[in-house]
Amino acid sequence: MKLEEGYELIITVVNKGWSERVIQAARKAGARGATVLHARGSGLYDTFTSFLGIAIEPEKELVLNVVPVSISDTIVEAISTALDLEKQGAGITMVLPLRSVAGLFKQSE
């Protein structure tokens, strides 16, 4: 098995239903794929409501993109601009270094 180096993981947390906007912005900036996970929010700007005494917690989506280090900043900027992440409560995106990656499909340019 050949392990690849030089990749980063971009994690974007947004409100439920916004993941497609993240994916589109990332693809336009050079990302080739994404994984979406469903999550529950508990951030400073998440509000909990109740319906008939049952707590309804804010639903979130996590979008994961494994991308080459060379285009990581470009993709983060594209996501941030497309979702206006400077706006309070719009979401958050972050980047983690990956020591090695296996299973990537490389398309020809």
Number of helices: 2
Strand order of the largest sheet: 2-5-1-6
Rounded average pLDDT = 85
CATH class: Alpha Beta
Which range best describes the helical content: under 10%, 10-25%, 25-40%, 40-55%, 55-70% or over 70%?
Answer: 10-25%
Structure description:
The chain is α+β, with helices and mostly antiparallel strands. The protein has a single domain (7-98), classed as Alpha-Beta Plaits, CATH 3.30.70.120. The protein is 23% helix and 35% strand. It is built from two helices and six strands; from the N terminus they run βαββββαβ. It has helices at 19-28, 69-83, and strands at residues 7-15, 35-40, 49-51, 54-56, 59-68, 92-98. The strands form two sheets. Strands 2-5-1-6 form a four-stranded antiparallel sheet, with helices on one face. Strands 3-4 form a two-stranded antiparallel sheet. Helix 1 packs across helix 2. The protein is globular, with a radius of gyration of 16 Å. The model has no long low-confidence stretch (mean pLDDT 85).
